[in-house]
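Below sits our specimen:

——
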Amino acid sequence: MHISDLHLGKKLGGRDLEEDQRHILGQIMDLAEEQGVDGLIVAGDIFDDGTSSTVSAVNILDWFLTELAERDIETYMISGNHDSMDRLHFGSKLFRSKGIHIVSRYEGEMIRYVQRKDDLTVGIYLLPFIKPVHARNAHPEDRIESYEDAVRSAISHTELVDGEDIRIAVTHQFVTNAGVNPDRCDSEKVYVGTSENVDISVFDDFDYIALGHIHRPQNVGSKGRYCGTPLKYSVSEADDEKSVTVIDVSKDGVNVSTIPLVPLRDLRRIRGPLEEIIAAGKDNPHREDYYQVDLTDNPDNPMDRVREVYPNVIGLTTPSIGESSMDDEVTPDEDMDPISALREFYRRCTGTEPSEYQMSIVEEIMGGGDE
């Protein structure tokens, strides 16, 4: 089974996702047991921010690894670009004795593990997220300028064992096919330019390339696959279906299928006038899900009113805010009082006048403009 981009510790619209992440990881482990998988691949970005991981995020990983070990699920995990190599490396030697294989540092070659079942031998080669500088430090004799050069160097310094029926590479790079970029979404950290691209052809000696980094599930060429995130981490993913990827291997090759994941709370996007959205929300069985609300009118206090029926709103837009532009500098007259200046600022940004209710709040906060 192939998963990636857990992004433990990530927030959605300022909301903590610990409960959601525990739910989906528990579901993944249950599916792994039901499917009788021989291994679980986790292709990087374990944490959302590896350098300042929250206590909650660390606790989730601790629980996840403990559960995997107790369920005897052999696990192969690498670091991604969001992870701290040193932090993820902690305890890895101890974990290995429990069947949890974590490779977070590049030390000159891909790390190989072997799965044998009946008369089938599968080689699993782990390559954590690697930058050109990592490869240059390990192999100063190689000419390494781009990310593709770095990956090519790593593979060239790895002994690919003869006699393996299937070879699986696990990597967390921006892998493309003949320069065609994968389908991306807003929750990813995407590099600018082309030097970060690694062409799928670099992995020609492998039968399946388990990719992390891109959040939308998709194939890359005939052998590579981004499995995507287990949860929706941006509004751009509202219509996506999240899943786990199952890799069936035999002497005849690799067959890939997916199993849908069911989140604790889905992420949805709704649009319409406020009163219609509130009326529909009162009888909505999914009202506890996460919502992006795009209003087609400009009512007062829309967020407070929407939250009465949709408590987990993560964002709200109105026509005035959506169509506003901050490109033009708003320079009030020097003699303009603060409240008048703010009224002018609001009018310039939204194209409408602030309501009396809004201005009463401003006057209360600013003391009638005397301070």
Observations:
- The longest strand covers residues 120-127.
- The first helix runs from residue 18 to 35.
- Residues 322-330 have pLDDT under 50 and may be disordered.
- The CA atoms of residues 241 and 260 lie 7 Å apart.
